[in-house]
Amino acid sequence: MCETLPAMCWSFARAYEPKELEPYVTQISSALLITAVFDRNVNCRRAASAAFQENVGRQGTFPHGIDILTAADYFAVGSISNCYLNITVFIASFPEYTKAMIDHLIAMKINHWDSVIRELATKALHNLTPQAADYMATTVLPKLLPMAVGIDLHGRHGAILACAEITHALHKLGLQTNRAVVDMISSECVDALKNIHQKLKDRKQYRGFGGELMRPAVCCLIEKLSLSKMPFKNDPVITGWQWLIDDTIKTIHLISRGVKDSILASLVSALSALCDEFYQAEPGQADLQIQDVLVSQYIEGLKSPQMLTRCGSALALGCLPRFMIHGKVKQILEGLLQMCTVSQNEEKFTEARRDAVKAISQVCLKAGVCAHGSPDSALCSENVAEVYGVLLHCMTDYTRDSRGDVGAWVREAAMTSIMDVTLLVAISAPEILLPDLVKRMMCCLAQQAAEKIDRYRAHAGNVFLCLLHSKEPAVPHIPHQEELLRIFPFETTTSLNWSAPSQAFQYITQLLGLPQYQYHTLLGLTVSVGGITESTVHFSSHSLFEYLRGIQENNAALTQFGDTLLSIFRDNLRNDMVSIPFLGMLNQMLANSCFEIFATQENHQFCVDILDLCKEFKKSKVIAKLRVSISVFCGLIQFQGEVRKRVLAQLLMLLCHPFPVIRKTTAGQMYEMLLTYDDVIDPEVLDDVMTLLSDANWESDLETVRTHRNQLCDWLKVSQPRKITKNPVPS
């Protein structure tokens, strides 16, 4: 049907004279415009727009045709949100189309089967209210209120949202003329709006699938009626609204996964507006009884075994207005900080940690900063270190589950929060920003800006530059600030695309030359250079090797770099998320002769330490770690002295590893190693060694393989490993 109407109207323009169509022009033009802006199908919208254009051009009698065509052309109607929220407002400014569009939305769109269309329709009604305020107040709203408590689920959902949006639009319109919304709508409508929640609750319509639509819709109604300053203070309906918000937080884990985020967002907005309007005993002062109940309840919710209840409680604490948290800041922050710390140690409740981190910054921003103030009412010298400690700890959250690196959500939230809090403290009380806190913050941001995931690298880089270049307020105690400003001039805040590896890594690797940033920058680069994403590995390794080539003649700088490398290795020896990419990065460094100055010295301590640390992996069951360890051992063969014998001994032990694939990989890589470094063994036995490595079946049984391995030991003049026999446990 929607495709037939534009086609027929398009043909009318060619088939009839203007005088013949003149009596029907208003109906045809309204129908075409309604289809052009409200139809769900983009092809139908574009067809209607084309038909309207044809009629305007050939008939010349369509009201305001040229003006409308400019706004509702073929391309403009391609975006459905643009149609509902912008184009409709322009078209409705012409009286011939206003009521027809409103009536169509009420009759056909707020009860549409698609929830997106219903929500867009209610927002369109909000935007159209100034064009026909009296019609909305006296005709549309009374028509919607029975639908808001009706039987049809979709109609009820759309009607509740529409009532909320229209009431709020009338309130904003009344502000311009100093009229309250209750003066613009009848007392019957006010009572009907107030009773919507109770009727739904009595009918148990907050349960089941219908409840997934009713809860966010009524939360939207609560928000809009609160913003509209409805005269419900001390009315029992406020208790009912608060019950709905609290019950939704407690039972949200029972709701379908796809709508949970939208429900949380709607209830947080509702709670904030409800507190602002109805929970003030005096202007700027909370009702103490309600304050105690809500704060205690949400802090207790942070300990819930249900993750989404924790999320809702954290977001609820974060959205409370300033007067609601006054005197409770210490209690709220302790609850949020404790949940972040404990849940991170348990590697559970990742989404709740993310929301708690957001709430921490929101509480700090609302409470404000006072250097010598009370921790119950502000961020001050007594609690600033604890807040920063938890936020910095959250920036090291690398929790993984079946969805991947979910800890990245927490890290992103922590970066945003730490930026907001730092700028607040810098402008109000910079003296409580201790040098150690600023150093740890900038180093953690540098690490995140060197990592492999484009989105989070970009976010970290932008936060880093924001804090570096902030002038009003200026962030104090930034380490190596002058050098950083030379590396990142002000232009990079807009020109540098941190998401592009080709741009980001050539800047971030320059931080390796700054002692206080070297460890964290190299730690971030480890997962990029040793990762598996081709573009990231290519550009990060290229930039890293460029830096290393620049310090080849500087023995002190290279030694310091090596020490930092070893520190990272030691600190993350048992962390496969770092140790495996670290070995991959180290293998690339050895293959590119980045430590050639060390290789010319016998038994250089760097090689000895690397070898000792790599030996820890020989009992690992992780194939990827064993494979890359073999590559590192083969790369270490370039070092001179007794250490070379020790490297060969490790490789020969791996030739008898319990895993056949490891034995085969070791033989193959040893073969390639001997081709590359032909001075490793005696030339007289080189051919025999190469032949045995290539021809022997290293995947056969261990006894056969051990014979071949022992032969290699004799040729290479390495002691044969002894088989350890475990003593039987005495009975």
UniProtKB/TrEMBL annotation:
UniProt keyword terms in alphabetical order: Chaperone
Gene3D superfamilies named in the record: Leucine-rich Repeat Variant
Domain Tubulin-folding cofactor D ARM repeats: residue ranges: 8-66
Organism per entry: Dissostichus eleginoides
Entry keyword Plastid: no
Name this polypeptide is given: Tubulin-specific chaperone D
Pfam families: ARM_TBCD_2nd, TFCD_C
GO terms classed as biological process: adherens junction assembly; bicellular tight junction assembly; microtubule cytoskeleton organization; post-chaperonin tubulin folding pathway; tubulin complex assembly
Family: Belongs to the TBCD family.
Lineage: superkingdom: Eukaryota
